[in-house]
Amino acid sequence: MTMTTTSASSKFLRRLPHLAGLAAALAFGTAAYAQQTAPSPDDSGPDPALANMAPGDAAAAQQQLSPVVAQPTTNQYAAPQNQLSGPPPQQAPAPIVRSAPSPQQPVAGSPDDSYNAPPTDVTDPQADTQIAAGQQALDDADISSDQAPPALPDYDQPEAPGDNYLWTPGYWGYGDVGYYWVPGVWIVPPYYGALWTPGYWGWYGGRYRWHGGYWGLHIGFYGGINYGFGYIGTGYFGGYWHGNAFIYNRAVTNVGARVSVTNVYNRTVVYNHVTYGARPTVRVSYNGGHGGINMAPRPGEMAAMHEAHTAALPGQRNLRNNAAQNPQAAFNNNHGRPAMTAQQQPLGANRPIANNAGTFQQRQQVQQNRAQQQPQQAHQQGAQGRQQPQPRMQQSRPAAQHPAPHESGGKH
Fold first, then answer.
1. Is residue 329 part of a domain?
2. Do 215 and 379 touch, CB atoms closer than 8 A?
3. Does some domain include residue 29?
4. Predicted confidence (pLDDT) per residue in 202-217, tens digit
């Protein structure tokens, strides 16, 4: 028994170096994989996400005025928080009012003067073309309320579903039920290079008015609202386009495991000497008014608003319409804590990305023409069917009766 035990011990000791080598190789492989999937922050040189801003703004971005509300946080994707931060829940909002903004400019020193109006004010007689080119004001500019929108809820960003999906943050919409929450969602952009400028609420003419978001090559003005996950109030730092590949910043984006490793980088978001994390610490959801973000558009953001834009995609509009009809999304029911803050299922998963904005617009035009031609073709076919003479029915006559051969003669 002693000899057997000694022999087993000797074999174990002889194998120990081999086992140690396997353990070291496994540890090295794990470390290499971790380094590959979670690169260390690279904060050297200019931030590549500055290219999301219009020319003229990116070069001087870190020397320009910063948002008044500073939000210093860690640079890693934070864990869920159990309690909301920011302003307390708002009172029940007033009924929806759909009216054109007041034609009078606010008087200096009055409450209306607390809002630094963006260049899309419909009070400007020449602003209609700016609005049509820059935002969905034809659909959204008449949405207003005399009460401020609620604070942005605290929520987790779902994992990116794959390469080239872009994040569109959640926001408070307004309808017959008052304020309601439209979930954030990942979406396939309309074309390569497209970026989403979120909509925002702004105080003007004595009311809070909604300015819809849009797609474009650069990020425009969205009220200085920190929606989180790279939308820090100006620009977008969740990633950038490199050719036909979107490169994600893991520091503020929940990349997950479905995105190609080559399409991920890790950079701390520092803007005007303020460090931003994935989730904002101040959740004010409107510009101007009482307690709102006091921020005016920068020259580059104004320039971006004059670029060619694409309105919200059909999936985005459907998402908003569904939220407006969902009782759980209404602030009067959820008191600022909606049950679904972000939609797990992405939008446009089976839709190909167009090469550029022109290609996407041509594709849209073709689809619109087809949609218009189908009812016309159906109407024409129906008209032709009614005008075409119907064939006359021929009456059948009974065949002539001939006597059978054995019946041709009489009986004898």
1. yes
2. no
3. no
4. 998 889 999 999 999 9
- The first and second tokens of residue 240, run together, are 């950038």
* For range 286-314, the mean pLDDT: 92
In a domain, 6, yes or no: no
Residue 89 has what pLDDT? 36
* Total number of domains in the chain: 1
Residue 196 CA: distances (Å) to CA of 187, 230, 256, 276, 361: 10, 12, 21, 19, 16
DSSP H helices in 77-136: 127-134
CA atoms of 126 and 128, how far apart (whole Å):
6
Q: Which two tokens stand for residue 294?
A: 């006091």
CA of 391: how far to CAs of 262, 382, 388, 394, in Å? 70, 18, 9, 9
Which residue range forms the structural domain that includes residue 176? 48-364
Q: Is the residue at 43 inside a domain?
A: no
Average model confidence (pLDDT) across the chain = 74
First to last CA, the chain: 131
In a 10 Å sphere around its CB, with 0-12 CB exposed, 13-18 middle and 19+ buried, how is residue 351 labelled? middle
Residue 151 makes CB contacts below 8 A (sequence gap 6+) with: 84, 86, 87, 88, 89, 90, 283, 284, 285, 336
pTM for this one? 0.68
- Between CA 393 and CA 405 the distance in angstroms is 35
Q: What is the DSSP code (8-state) at residue 228? A: B
